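Course assignment 3, question 2. Fill in each field.
Student: A.L.
Task: Predict the tertiary structure for the chain below.
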Amino acid sequence: MNELQEMNELFDELFPIMRSITGEGVRETIHILKKYLPLEMEGIPTGTQVFDWEIPKEWVIREAWIKDENGNEIINISKLNLHVVNYSEPIDEWVTLKELKQHVHTIPHIPDAVPYVISYYKERWGFCMSQNQFDSLSEGNYHVYIESEKIEGELNYAHAILPGKTDKEVLISTYICHPSMANNELSGPIVAAFLYNRIKQWENRELTYRFVFVPETIGSIAYLSNYGEHLKRHLYSGAVLTCLGGKEHPLSYKLSRNKTAPLNHLIDFINEHEEYGMPIRPFTPLYGSDERQYCSPGFNLPVGQFSKMVYGNYPGYHNSLDTKEGMTIEALLDSLNEIEHLLKLQELNGYYINLKPFGEPKLGKYDLYPDLNTPTIWGQSTNKKIDGRQQLNQVLTILNYSDGKHRLADLAKTLGYPLEDYEISLEILKTHHLIDGPFYEERELF
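Answer field:
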């Protein structure tokens, strides 16, 4: 089975689960994801204070439906779990149409869509249906039934760590709390799971990668309550993965609030100095995902966000039109490829130290400089894998700027080559013990 088929299979297994910010749906989701990466699940008990928040009770939902006077079923969460307001209180009553309508949510401007509605922190009961179905309801009495309860339980999240040569970490965070939505829910966890396995196969992994799966907002706040101080000491870079589907949509990056964030630096370089670019969205706390928590002023972590079909900008956002067909698994594979490529470039884009910094090293004895100076070989390098003089230009530039103060992208600005083209020259210089690195913070040359 290839990656595309595996991603499709994982989607089909995860999509029907009734998820919320707590409960069995989150645990079931983590259990399924554990087949793809070695997640460790942790729980924080109900009532625990996490900064200004308190872990709520677990919501247990067993059944929810509406029937008319003749016993005809109007809606049932067994057919679509968006039909109940998430975290709804229980009810078993007959109500008039007028009273029912006060508890039914629709999207009038998208009449075929059933909305996703939540009420985590205020007690209420309610249902969701399409506007067309809402308009078709006839006068009479309706039996409304929600079998739910809130229990003393816990909030769950999970993480997996891929160690590298350094303890500097890259955070990959995504959320696992929305029911029955494709782009706005499952795109992030699916890409994250497969990204883990891509990075695991890298032969020379410099950085350590921390993959985190949390319920949105309250989950990342809870995670920070336990690991925030660790992240403040060790986090080098990070990104929240969300809304990564949409075949006709380019991958975009939301800047980190932390202006020194390495991904900010890298993507700025790519957009300014390479042929292909990436749409950039400014940081804002007004909307988005868990980057707002990681970038809150008490932490100000270097965490951005990757999205493709961005939240709020497509008809299926937070409703039943957010389907696999609209998202496409192919788009997820494209996002996976692009994000992996950027993370590889981030590994290259460190600081380097020249180990022979007094004058230029005698490059000829390393077979890095032509041994004959004649007009017929000007513009050539000794390594024919890189055309023209490109390798020699890279070698001379890398050596001169490998002073522990310049990232690779800083010195690459002086030449016109894509960042990935420096990989061969860097490896050659390291093989000959002419440079050391990459390092992921500034270093003193001596």
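Instructor remarks: Residues 191 and 336 are 6 Å apart (CA to CA). The longest strand covers residues 141-151.
Grade: pending
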